[in-house]
Every structure is written in C-alpha cells, then in structure tokens.
C-alpha cells in the first residue's frame, strides 16, 4: 500500500513574513482527528523558495509537514555561482527536493542528463528526489506523450545508484499544458500516463519496486478535481502549484486525501 503524498510547489511566491499566517490557517483547517489521520495517511510537503527554507522548516514542524527545495546542484560545493548544494539544503533542515520541474527544463536549460545527475546525487546523499516529467501540448498532439515520458524516465533510471530506490524517490507526472492553465488532465488521461510510467518502472526496476514507488499528478490540481484524480489506481497524490498558495484550498485537498 503506497502512502499518499500531497506536495505544494510555491514556485517563486511568498515571503518569510507570510509563513506564520499560512501555517496557522492551514493548521486550523486540519485539526484534531483529521490532523492525526493526515500524519498517518498522507505525506504533506511544501517546496518553497530558497530564502524561505530555514524558516519554513521551523514553521511547518508542528504540523508534521516536510519542507522541500525546488531545485539543487548535484555537486557538494564548488565554483557554481548562484547554485545551492545538497549539504546546504540539509543544513537548513530540508529533506526533499523537486528535480527537473518543467519550468526548469523550459526556462533554465535543464536536460534529461542534468535531471538524472541531480537525482543520483540526491539519492546518494539521502535527500528525497521528486522527479518531474511530462509532455508539452505539441508533443501530446503529435501522439508522442508515451515516447517523451519514457525517454525522460529512462535517463533517470539509467543513472540510479546501486541499491533499492522505490521508497527513496517519488515521480511526478506533470503535463506541461496543464500547469497553471486551469486545464487539468482528465483523471483518465492522467491515469493512462501513470499506468504507463508504472509499467516502465517495472521494466527498469522489477514489479515489486514499480508497485512501491509513488507517482504524483501535477497540473491544475485543485480541491475540485483531487478526489477524482486520487481515485485512479496509479495516482498516489498531487504536486500542486496555485492551489497550494491558499491554505484553505490545500487543506481541503489534504482532507480529501485521507
Ligand atoms: P499548478 O497547480 O498551478 O497548475 O502548477 C502545477 C505545478 O507546476 C506543480 O509543480
């Protein structure tokens, strides 16, 4: 049985001054039995901007919420101006990171190779990688969805360190055309790709590991559609942008996932 995960991605939003009010509102919405159930049944996590990490770790701790980075550099230190390493993130109390988000691939030149390298580094250093993949609208309309996600996944799989990884990493399927557009993939469209990814995982890692690894859906996930998405057999949670900025909306999504 895979434990669900709801991960907020704040992207380049919010300031440290917003944290106390956000977590107070979130905490008020998920209280009592629901809070206990949430801790047991759903991993809740927020990927926040670098400047918020250390304070967010403290602000989120009372709710059992993990804080993640949105990116990292694969090397532990060195002449890489503007980059942040895994030891730096760990020092701030961060235990997970998004890797290869489509906005990093689209606007900051990340490739399958850099995503693979970062994933390997995260696994080697005990940081949970949440590896993002997904096709663009042009690719979907050209019938290339499976070919694209297969290629993106294979690059990561071929770079894995030795040893079991099924519990040590998470995949996030985020169709680029659904991100920030209000046009979510239908639950059926999402399930088709999740199912395909799980079959690919089985090829790379074997059936047991494929059955263990969590695959999140991202792209206009909201309180309105999360129940239907989570009802699909291969969808284990959500990677949520816009709706994670609103504590009440995100709390409703967590309560739906219980
Ligand atoms: P939205 O939920 O705003 O569409 O963003 C999805 C996303 O990119 C999460 O990483």
Largest sheet: 8 strands, parallel, barrel
| Overall pLDDT | 96
What is the string of SSEs from the N terminus onward? EHHEHEHEHHEHHEHHEHEH
Small molecules bound in the structure, each named once: 1,3-dihydroxyacetonephosphate
Report the strand count.
8
Distance between the termini: 14 Å
State the helical fraction: 40-55%
Radius of gyration: 17 Å
Number of helices: 12
Structural class assignment: alpha/beta
- Which regions are unreliable across 5 or more consecutive residues at pLDDT < 50? none
Strand content is 15-25%
| General form | globular
Oligomer: single chain
Q: Give the spatial strand order of the biggest sheet.
A: 1-2-3-4-5-6-7-8
Structure at a glance:
This protein is α/β, with parallel strands linked by helices. It contains twelve helices and eight strands. α6 crosses α8.
What does this structure look like?
By secondary structure, this protein is an alpha/beta fold. It is built from twelve helices and eight strands. The protein has helices at about 20-30, 30-40, 55-60, 85-90, 100-105, 110-125, 135-140, 145-160, 185-205, 205-210, 225-230, 245-255, and strands at about 5-10, 40-45, 65-70, 95-100, 130-135, 170-175, 215-220, 235-240. The protein has an eight-stranded parallel barrel with strand order 1-2-3-4-5-6-7-8, surrounded by six helices. β7 (about 215-220), α11 (about 225-230) and β8 (about 235-240) form a beta-alpha-beta unit. The protein starts with a strand and ends with a helix. The structure holds 1,3-dihydroxyacetonephosphate. 1,3-dihydroxyacetonephosphate binds near residues 179, 180 and 242.
């Amino acid at each position: 049985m895979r434990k669900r995960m709801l991960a907020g991605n704040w992207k380049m939003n919010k300031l440290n001054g917003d944290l106390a009010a956000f977590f107070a509102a979130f905490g008020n919405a998920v209280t009592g039995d629901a809070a206990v159930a949430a801790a047991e049944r759903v991993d809740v996590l927020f990927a926040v901007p670098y400047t918020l990490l250390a304070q967010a770790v403290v602000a989120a701790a009372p709710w059992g919420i993990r804080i993640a980075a949105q990116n990292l550099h694969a090397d532990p230190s060195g002449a890489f101006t503007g980059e942040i390493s895994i030891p730096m993130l760990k020092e701030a109390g961060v235990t997970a990171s998004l890797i290869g988000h489509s906005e990093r691939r689209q606007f900051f030149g990340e490739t399958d190779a850099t995503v693979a390298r970062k994933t390997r580094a995260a696994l080697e250093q005990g940081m949970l990688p949440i590896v993002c993949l997904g096709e663009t609208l042009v690719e979907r309309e050209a019938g290339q969805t499976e070919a694209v996600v297969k290629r993106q996944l294979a690059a990561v799989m071929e770079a894995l360190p030795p040893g079991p990884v099924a519990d040590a990493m998470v995949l996030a399927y985020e169709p680029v055309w659904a991100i920030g557009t209000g046009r979510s993939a239908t639950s059926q469209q999402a399930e088709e790709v999740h199912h395909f990814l799980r079959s690919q995982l089985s090829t790379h890692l074997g059936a047991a590991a494929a059955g263990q690894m969590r695959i999140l859906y991202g792209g206009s996930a909201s309180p309105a559609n999360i129940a239907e998405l989570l009802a699909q057999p291969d969808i284990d949670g959500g990677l949520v942008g816009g709706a994670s900025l609103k504590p009440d909306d995100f709390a409703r999504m967590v309560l739906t996932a219980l």
